[in-house]
Amino acid sequence: MREPTFLVLTALAAEPRHGYAVIEDVAQMTAGRVRLRAGTLYAALDRLRVDGLIEIDREEVVQSRLRRYYRLTGAGEQSLTAESARLRAQATIAERRLRARRTELGGATA
Amino acid sequence: MTEIRYRRLLALYPRAFRQEYAEEMIGVLMADPRPAPAQVFDLIRNALIARLRLAAPGSGWARSARLVWFFGATLLLTVTLRRVVGDIPIPAHPGRQWAGIPPVDAVRLAGWAVALLAAVLGLRLVGALGAVAGLAGEIAAPSRTYVDTPATVLNAYWLIVAAFVVLCAVLVAERGALRPRGWVPIAAAGAVLIAEGRFLFLLDWQRPESFFAWRPPAALLAVAAGLVALGVLRQEAAVRRRLIAWSVPILVTFPLVRAGFGGFVAYNMGHPDSLRLIDPGQWALLLVVPLAAFAAAAAIVRRLETPA
Fold it and tell me: How far is the C-alpha of A35 from the C-alpha of A99, rounded, in Å?
């Protein structure tokens, strides 16, 4: 799963959100490192809808503009769970190896 | 940027996508305070991806686009280098002066060098700027003599199409730095092309009367073509199919120019005092045929990959 897809699913895991709210939430989650643009966001939303991972929650018209809220589906929740587990497992391996490396380097310099 | 301009850009998306998301996207774009150029680049890129996804679903296009970007920039850089290196006289023969690199070749060289470096580092926006410069150079080079010799544009048309293909590939390519499988044969093909250009130049210089004689460089061209084929063959099957599809619009220009413009070239050669320029219908043919060829190739890829 690509990072924008993962982040969009994560944003929708908290509550149904409209497009601009997803951009804001992703920026907040990543401390400003990832700030999705409209083209990338709607490409990801379209793909996720086609794959059945998200669906439309409701629509509103605010200041004469359409605002559509998206929510995670059951399949989306499973997919996000699996991806989170995969990333956690990789991070655990990386942390373990870094700890071992620091121990070895500490031993060598002592 | 105004709403009307964003709406014009959204027209690049497939109609179905536009009907589903255009109104929402306009709302998001107008609410987003970030600078317009980056938004424009993002919209153009994703519109192209949306069209490619329609042509042949699957992520293979974005992956193969990275290779087209890398391989295409390498080959277009070497084609320009071949021309420049081939013109440098031998120091031992001071009778011929070297005028330096023509500005249009300098633009091409810089453009493709930047595009290639950006492919290695995974910098898409920089790669797009390099490819735009390269494309501008490829268009400008034959345009200089178009009015006197219209056929120069036809002879160089494959290069213009190749440059456009590389630009499209940069726009839809996956993110990330790249040193792809098969880069060695492609780089070797580039080196052979440069050597061929230099060899041809030396041969003409030393034996100008041998113009119609047997030319070893023809064999070098075959070697270069073989190395490119080897680079393509080293890719996995799905990527290989797409690489071939990407190359179809370039390859189709050769029979198009030969079959569609043979009479045009023959007329101009026989009537130097009343040259004909390429008319609007012929320009339309030059634009439409490569696009249609790519659409057909993409449809074949989709059919091959659709489960029975």
Answer: 32
| Structural domains of chain A, with CATH | 3-81 (1.10.10.10)
Residue A40 contacts B, CB cutoff 8 Å: yes
Q: Do B24 and A43 touch (CB under 8 A)?
A: no
B32: in domain? yes
Give the CB-side neighbour count of residue B234, counting CA atoms within 13 A: 15
CB within 8 Å: A46 and B17: yes
What's the pLDDT at B301?
A: 84
Contact B187, B76 (CB under 8 A): no
Q: 10 Å Cβ neighbour count for B196?
A: 21
Which B residues in the span 12-71 are in contact with A, Cβ-Cβ below 8 Å?
A: 17, 20-21, 23-32, 34, 38-39, 42-47, 49-50
pLDDT category at B163 given cuts 50, 70, 90 is very high
In the predicted model, is pLDDT for residue B240 greater than 80? yes
- In Å, how far from its chain's centre is CA B202? 28
Number of domains in chain B: 1
Residue B13's contacts (CB-CB under 8 Å, 6 or more residues apart) are B21, B22, B46, B47, B50, B51
- Enter the pTM of the model: 0.64
